[in-house]
Amino acid sequence: MSEHSKSSPLKTYLAVWGSLLLGTFITYKVAFIDLGRFNAAVALTIATIKALIVALFFMHLRHAHEKLLKLVVISTIFFLFILLVLSMADYGTRTWS
Amino acid sequence: MSMATTTVQPVERENYLNKEYGVGSWLLTTDHKRIALLYLISITFFFFIGGFFALLIRLELLTPASDLVQPDTYNKLFTMHGQVMVFFFLIPSIPAVLGNFLVPLMIGAKDLAFPRVNLLSWYLYIIGGVMMLHCMLTGGVDTGWTFYTPFSTAFSNTKVIEAGLAIFVAGFSSILTGLNFVVTIHRMRAPGMTWSRLPLFIWAHYATSIIQILGTPVIAITLVLVVAERALHLGIFDPKLGGDPLLFQHLFWFYSHPAVYIMILPSMGVVTEIIACFARKRIFGYSFIALSSIAIAVFGFLVWAHHMFVAGISVYAALVFSLLSYAVAVPSAVKVFNWTATLYKGSIHYDAPMLYAFGFIGLFTMGGLTGLFLAALGIDVHVTDTYFVIAHFHYIMVGGALMGYLGGMHFWWPKISGKLYPEGWARLAALIVFIGFNLTFFPQFVLGYLGMPRRYADYSHMPEFQVLNVLSTAGATVLGVGYLLPMLYFLWSMRYGKPAPDNPWNAAGLEWMTSSPPTTFNFEKEPIVTWEAYNYDELDRAHKEEVKVVG
Amino acid sequence: MSDSTVVGLHHEEQHHPELLHHFAEPQQQRDAASLGMWIFLATEVMFFGGLFCAYLIYRRLYFGDFGAASSSIKAGLGAANTAVLICSSLTVVLAIWGAQIGRRSLMIGSLVLTMLFGLTFLGIKGVEYKEKFDEHHVPGASFSFDHVPIPGHPDQYANPRHAQIFFSLYFIMTGLHALHMIIGLGLFAWLLFMARKGRFTPEYYTPLDVGGLYWHFVDIVWIYLFPLLYLIDRHP
Q1: Where do the domains of chain C lie?
Q2: How far is C156 from chain B (nearest CA, A)?
Q3: What does residue C149 show for φ and ψ, rounded to 5 degrees?
Q4: Which among B384, B426, B432 is positioned nearest to B409, based on CA atoms?
Q5: Mutation test of the interface with chain A: which of C46, C90, C91, choosing the one with the most A Cβ atoms within 10 A?
Q6: Which residues in chain B touch residue A86, judged by CB atoms under 8 angstroms apart?
Q7: In whole angstroms, how far apart are CA B317 and each of A89, B299, B313, B324, C51?
Q8: Which residues contact C53 (CB under 8 A, 6 or more apart)?
Q9: From the candidates A54, A81, A84, A94, which should be mutated to test the interface with C, based on the most C CB atoms within 10 A?
Q10: Do A93 and B254 touch (CB under 8 A)?
Q11: Cα–Cα dist C224/B451, whole Å
């Protein structure tokens, strides 16, 4: 953005990059281990952390000088959640007697 | 400058209309005001197409037998009436015409944030419109505007793919307009124009834009899926192939319910502006109206499955959506209360815009209340898919949204065109519209309650419905006359109307502080706002004489 | 709500060549561009969101069949592609940083690398698609998925119709994603062209910023697509 950066962005960028690659590696390896229902949860949790650090650091959301952009992101995720959760609630409760 | 006398200028000042002539200067314009007029012409064209289909529907229903058109043709008529009216008239109407014209003016800006994107929006609308026209001329669609699967994906023999793609393209027009408005309202307000000084028209368009931005993409992807399924027989929505038709309905209504709030919120914004002006009073409960617009936008996303109560969703989901549907009515009611409180002890003037605003309040209230009846599961089971539903949504979309649009067109016509419309004819037209509307749609509540199903060309199994249908068709004819009149006298006024002063209504708002019509860049000097919105007490104190409208 | 609207009528600031007439100040223009792109990304989230909704519902309904279908696509290729995109996001931020500090070679080199990574991604995708085509896993007339056991239940075969739904969603989701990548490549080709012409300086690099946001979004979509599509049930 318009921010003239933080002292050593390079270090941050490389750290984020490394974490992303590590997260990918872990996701891949853990998929082959049987965790039952938690496989999906682990994979999606790691994915969410990855998405978060891309947004916060690569997309500079962390240093946005006003709350507006974060509000845009949070609202969008909220409405996406509504779509997913309420739809799945219908399917999930169809077989309740 | 805001004196309510006519000033006849000997030499026409330069304004956005006469700045440049030639087709190119219009088709390549980035001036939000010219783009608004491009939209005005386009949506009016589609309004007549949609109206033509409505006329054919009402003519068919004059008699119980399906004797005017074949049932298959009738299916196409109500489908295309719905698609054209929803996607090519109502959704763009106020935002693309009045919003485009007024948003920069009302906030003191020179243009929207992204003028070229604004022009792109119009071109996308036109491309979608041409695709839709081609689709209609080469066979049409018969699935209902709702495209329900698997009929639309596996059984219909009509041009579903083309219609779906046309709406897909037009949807992006809507998305970009919403995006433009939100960025403009955040970033381009004049100095001193704080959020709490914004006209409520702006708040309404902000809320509308949120819906356009977040909702439209979902129907876009849904139409992609329908097109893909129809073309490739994928099975996503086809029960024979393992798919669930209700998934389509969830995705479709996730947008299409909030879409109805896209259609009504801007109209509510218009009504707020008109009521303040013609009651000569500050709006009662400014923050309530502002926040209720946002609340409607948010809650509107939580209720979609009330269109699916009898489709096969789980009872528990139905309960939740029913409850949420009651909740969404609250912010709308808040507005009606605040408008009423504004009128109380106001100095009421019955100019044409105000007649439309009064019509709006009454008819919207009726439409909204009947929505609550439909939200009750026990009632919905009986009246869903009957004329009760049709009457309900026409009360809101025609009695509500369209009346607000007409009121707004009258209110801002002097600003847009620089001419005054003939007031006598306008009041007559408003009255004709109101009478015609009620005659058309009130009988439909009764018809639906008595059990007449919607989307039926042939009701000869219940011939006693004919009387009410005849009344409805008669009303539609009257309504048509009421709609034609403004078309005619607005056109007339462009040539023969009296030149409008800058502020013929002595109204509050930055748009009235520029010339009528405005110059291309709106304001000679960037305004600095130091007053609150709706400062009618100041305006009326400063100019002792009563508002006189010359028409 | 506070935000950075422009205040003030008179600016003695020289008129920046990139300043558009309807903005009063470069900062206002930058903030408008940034907000505009974030809102556009919000629409893209909802656009993909509809697909994720369909996917999650069917995955829940037909978990076994989806597991079988998912196991037939190469997780290694998916992981490789994830890594490729992650590297490309790094090069994007390096390109912007290069512009910010006035290091033209860093900026241009990073842009070129970004595009190379993007092309690599599409190449690997092409390999995957070809494999699916050869195995008759592309939905349509020639689709077949017979006698494929469900992971963890070697005695049960997956329902081919449900598998076809998986592959329909797989192709539509990854295809839409690839389309966005192609558009991203076009965008970055244009950014590279502008960068080489010297249009970006520490004072003005807004198109890079905005293009970068778009690219990172495409990366984020893939970050979710990878585990959801490739790793449903890999541990029989």
Answers
A1: 29-135+163-230
A2: 18
A3: -70, 150
A4: B426
A5: C90
A6: 302, 305, 317, 320-321
A7: 7, 16, 7, 11, 21
A8: A83, A84, A87, B250, B251
A9: A54
A10: no
A11: 49
Domain C29-135+163-230, what fold? Four Helix Bundle (Hemerythrin (Met), subunit A) (1.20.120)
Instruction: Give, in degrees to the nearest 5, the angle at Cα B275 between B271 and B277.
Output: 120
pLDDT digits 0-9 by tens, C107-133: 999 999 999 999 999 999 999 999 999
3-class secondary-structure state, position C71: helix
* Yes or no, beta carbons of B244 and C4 under 8 Å apart: no
DSSP, res B454: T
HSE, CB side, 13 Å, CA atoms: give it for residue C100. 17
d(CA B179, CA A74): 17
Tokens at residue B53, please?
């289909």
- Record: contact B221-C168, CB cut-off 8 A: no
Residue recorded with tokens 């009423």: B340
Domain ranges for chain A, please list them: 1-64, 66-97
Q: Evaluate whether ipTM surpasses 0.90.
A: yes
Domains and CATH numbers, chain B: 31-539 (1.20.210.10)
B218 contacts in chain A (CB < 8 Å):
83
Query: C32, B114: Cβ pair inside 8 Å?
Result: yes
The pLDDT tens digits of the residues spanning B8-46 come to 555 678 899 999 899 999 999 999 999 999 999 999 999
Q: Which of A34, A76, A78, A91 to mutate to test the interface with C (most CBs of C within 10 A)?
A: A76
With an 8 Å Cβ cutoff, are A76 and C46 in contact? Answer: yes
Cα–Cα distance measured from residue B185 to residue B494, given in angstroms and rounded to the nearest whole number: 31
The answer to whether B313 contacts chain C (CB < 8 Å) is no
CA-nearest residue of chain A to B217? A80
Return the partners of chain C (3 or more C-beta pairs < 8 Å): A, B
Asked if residue B541 has pLDDT above 90, the reply is: no
Task: State the pairing for strand pair C149-150/C153-157.
Answer: antiparallel
pLDDT surpasses 50 at C1? no
**pLDDT tens, position by position, C136-157:** 999 988 999 999 999 988 899 9
Please state, in angstroms and as integers, the Cα–Cα distance from residue C52 to each residue in A80, B22, C45, following that order.
Answer: 10, 48, 10
What letters, b where the CB count within 10 A reaches 16 and e where it falls short, cover C167-203? bbbbbbbbebbbebbeebbebbeebbebbeeebbeee
- State the nearest Cα–Cα gap between C9 and chain B, in angstroms: 7
Closest residue to C35, CB basis, from B183, B217, B225: B183
Q: Which residue from A82, A87, A96 is facing B301, i.e. has the nearest CB?
A: A82
Say which DSSP state B87 is in.
Answer: I
Task: Give the long-range contacts of residues C112-118, CB within 8 A, separation 24 or more.
Answer: C112/C192, C113/C88, C114/C88, C114/C188, C114/C215, C115/C185, C115/C188, C115/C189, C115/C192, C117/C84, C117/C85, C117/C87, C117/C88, C117/C91, C118/C88, C118/C181, C118/C184, C118/C185, C118/C188
- Asked whether the predicted pLDDT for residue C16 surpasses 90, the reply is no
pLDDT of residue B4: 55
**C45/A77 Cβ within 8 A:** yes
Chains contacting A with at least 3 CB pairs below 8 Å?
A: B, C
CA distance linking residue B262 with residue A78, whole number of Å: 19
Residues 6+ apart with CB under 8 A from B22: none
Cα(C188)–Cα(C180) distance, integer angstroms: 12
pTM, to two decimals: 0.94
Token digits of residue B446 = 């009764």
Is B320 touching A (CB cutoff 8 A)?
Answer: yes
Residues of chain C with Cβ-Cβ distance to A32 below 8 Å are 234-235
Amino acid, single-letter form, for residue B449: Y
Per residue in B443-484, pLDDT tens? 999 999 999 999 999 999 999 999 999 999 999 999 999 999
Contact residues, chain C, for A74 at CB < 8 Å: none
